[in-house]
């Protein structure tokens, strides 16, 4: 592996890159080819490809057991699962969400004619600040969607109290939080329902996929109906619906990955720890840490670049990309700066000071043991901290 000791060693200054093959953020976890292919064999033997097939049913049961929740409704992706959960909950009017999230959280509302209202975050956790949420409540507000960003639980108790006080529905976008816990309890059981994404880039993946989990029987029934065009039985449509079904091959991937989930999380945590060591003591560089008393997949390696560092975030990203380390700027510049919200709410930034200050400082690094030492050497060289 290439060593970076001086500025001349940097690929951005003409040296060969550290990695010939780019190292991506969110490279898919494919843990057992044999287990996956064995499950796919069953799909072919069954001649049952989709429509609530046996593998999807088994995956739903296993996920519900794993999380300790009554219902798991598997879907074709996390975004459709959000849309269906939002609709089944009867959200309307305005719903409060963070701007500092993947744009799907906001789009899932806007797509259904509901106004996402952006609330600010706590800069220490990157999650919703309950006081900021309180300030955004209006007579049109019907609900709150908390996001467990980077797998760290949102302030669930505070949001629950706020929701009860104001008669609002509360649900969670748990797309990052499969395997996470809050005060010792698995994410998946909180609020009216929680929505996971099992997209290829997430720590636990079904290629494309997602699920809504809930302890509410009626809500689970409503979501099952809506994910299958509103069909109750063969010819009986009793509700508007869409096609949100997970296919059997995706469930095959899910079953294979779920068997190996502890190993996936252990690797994520190990890589995170390596970054922590490699980046220790760098001026102005903060690696977002996770609460050791709660579980987290450690899938996201989140760096904040402060004023004390001699290069800015965008220059660091350029230098890393030149090395083949494809760091990302998630979720810059914040949903409120993306369309259509930027035109709809041109002044939203005024009430989002923490989001606005954080967005230009964040770097997401590949969860990779290989990329960690190179990243550390690069930053140390740029900081001038490494002596020749
Ligand atoms: C990935 C993600 C989604 C969307 O999930 P898909 O399965 O890609 O549709 C929603 N919210 C957040 C926070 C995400 O990261």
Molecular structure report:
By secondary structure, the protein is α/β, with parallel strands linked by helices. It folds into two domains: 7-23 and 261-387, Aspartate Aminotransferase, domain 1 (Alpha-Beta Complex); 33-258, Type I PLP-dependent aspartate aminotransferase-like (Major domain) (Aspartate Aminotransferase, domain 2, 3-Layer(aba) Sandwich), CATH 3.40.640.10. The chain is built from 13 helices and 14 strands. Strand 5, helix 6 (156-166) and strand 6 (169-173) form a beta-alpha-beta unit. Helix 3 (78-88) crosses helix 4 and helix 9 packs parallel to helix 13 (371-383). It starts with 22 loop residues before the first strand and ends in a 5-residue tail after the last helix. Residues 77-79, 101-102, 104-105, 147, 173, 175-176, 197, 199, 210 line the site of pyridoxal-5'-phosphate (PLP).
Which shape, going by the Cα principal axes? globular
Distance, first to last CA: 19 Å
- What class would the helix/strand composition place it in? alpha/beta
Q: CATH-wise, what's the superfamily of the largest domain?
A: Type I PLP-dependent aspartate aminotransferase-like (Major domain)
Number of strands: 14
Mean pLDDT: 97
* CATH fold type of the largest domain: Aspartate Aminotransferase, domain 2
Give the helix proportion (percent range): 25-40%
Alpha-carbon Rg, integer: 22 Å
- Give the class-level CATH name of the largest domain: Alpha Beta
Order of H and E elements: EHHEHEHEHEHEEEEEHHHEEHEHHEH
Q: How much of the residues is beta strand, in percent?
A: 5-15%
Number of domain modules: 2
The biggest beta sheet is recorded as: 7 strands, mixed
> Uncertain regions: pLDDT < 50 for 5+ in a row?
none
Q: How many H/I helical runs?
A: 13
Ligand inventory: pyridoxal-5'-phosphate
Looking at the overall shape, the CATH architecture of the largest domain is 3-Layer(aba) Sandwich
Spatial arrangement of strands, main beta sheet: 2-10-9-6-5-3-4
